[in-house]
Amino acid sequence: MAGSCWHMEDIEKTLHDSLTPLGLEVYPFKIGWYNAVLSPSFHLPYPEDTLAVVVLSTPSMFERAFTPFLESHSCEGVTDPIDQCIRHSISTCVTQSFPGQEVNISYDYEMLPNRKPKFLAQTAAHVAGAAYYYQRTDVMDDPWGGKKMFGVCIHPKLGGWFAIRALLVFPGVAVGAELQQRPPPDCVPSQESRVELLERFNFRWQDWTYRDIVPTAECYSQQQKTYFSTPPGQRAALLRQWGFLPGGDTQTQKQNQGGDIVG
Ligand code: B12
């Protein structure tokens, strides 16, 4: 199909059908919704009716995409294996599903030369209706004085057991009234629970409890928790110990049995 023939509904369905089996969720939105809430230095340089899609990973991504990826690909040493897996999954889907179509992909960990993130993942998730972005400004008379408090997105079904992985922009696809903005479910409505959420996320994020601020259908498996609790520099050794990467040896295994668990 020629690039200009694609419609938003077809793109959403194609991405959904290809990425859902990998434990990923997709949410379309218009660039204008994103730019409307951000200061100009964070704006994305596209017309406001341009189609964008934010991609989330759910708990099952680890077993559905990551461990199969490790078993069938050789990971390159320098970048994080999860990032390699997500990049591989999304770029394969885009190349195979949208040949000839311009699709600009940005990942959550990518920075611009001015050291700002390529896109603000939480704002994208909020404006797309995927997960409410709770910020300090959502709490009246907050108790934190001059302290910097980071905001956190909560998904109506997954609570905090997800990550926001990528932004896809389709510069050649303008969207009209067929895409209407829907607010994300406000699943942490009370002032007390919002204070509790932001305190857990900012002061105790390593204990995972901010992720359970609402009841959830799924959470990370024990293996996934162990993986993410391991400092990034020690994760390759852990994967080797689990047999997912070649070159495992008893010395590496011994070194990592007592490894720090800091998240
Ligand atoms: C840099 C970064 C960090 C830094 C700084 C955090 C920060 N928020 O600035 C550090 C290293 C501290 C950090 C830590 C963590 N991070 Co971090 N981090 C990021 C990263 C890469 C960029 C965030 C950023 O720089 N934002 C810039 C600031 C200026 O944005 P902002 O505060 O949202 O301000 C904008 C909004 O307020 C907006 N705005 C204004 N009005 C309104 C109104 C509405 C309605 C809306 C929607 C927006 C809006 O305008 C402002 C800009 O103009 C994002 C991924 C990404 N690409 O976005 C992950 C991300 C925020 N981190 C994440 C996580 C999970 C963590 C950690 C728990 C560690 C981890 N990875 O497990 C810890 C927890 C925080 C802590 N207690 O330390 C997740 C959060 C997921 C979620 N559910 O929300 C993200 C999204 C990564 C991901 N892949 O999912 N992180």
Automatic annotation (TrEMBL):
<dbReference type="GO" id="GO:0031419">
    <property type="term" value="F:cobalamin binding"/>
</dbReference>
<dbReference type="InterPro" id="IPR032037">
    <property type="entry name" value="MMACHC"/>
</dbReference>
<comment type="similarity">
    <text>Belongs to the MMACHC family.</text>
</comment>
<dbReference type="GO" id="GO:0033787">
    <property type="term" value="F:cyanocobalamin reductase (cyanide-eliminating) (NADP+) activity"/>
</dbReference>
<dbReference type="GO" id="GO:0071949">
    <property type="term" value="F:FAD binding"/>
</dbReference>
<keyword id="KW-0963">Cytoplasm</keyword>
<keyword id="KW-0288">FMN</keyword>
<dbReference type="GO" id="GO:0005737">
    <property type="term" value="C:cytoplasm"/>
</dbReference>
<keyword id="KW-0560">Oxidoreductase</keyword>
<keyword id="KW-0170">Cobalt</keyword>
<keyword id="KW-0285">Flavoprotein</keyword>
<dbReference type="Pfam" id="PF16690">
    <property type="entry name" value="MMACHC"/>
</dbReference>
<protein>
    <recommendedName>
        <fullName>Cyanocobalamin reductase / alkylcobalamin dealkylase</fullName>
        <ecNumber>1.16.1.6</ecNumber>
        <ecNumber>2.5.1.151</ecNumber>
    </recommendedName>
</protein>
<keyword id="KW-0846">Cobalamin</keyword>
<dbReference type="GO" id="GO:0009235">
    <property type="term" value="P:cobalamin metabolic process"/>
</dbReference>
<dbReference type="GO" id="GO:0032451">
    <property type="term" value="F:demethylase activity"/>
</dbReference>
<keyword id="KW-0521">NADP</keyword>
<keyword id="KW-0274">FAD</keyword>
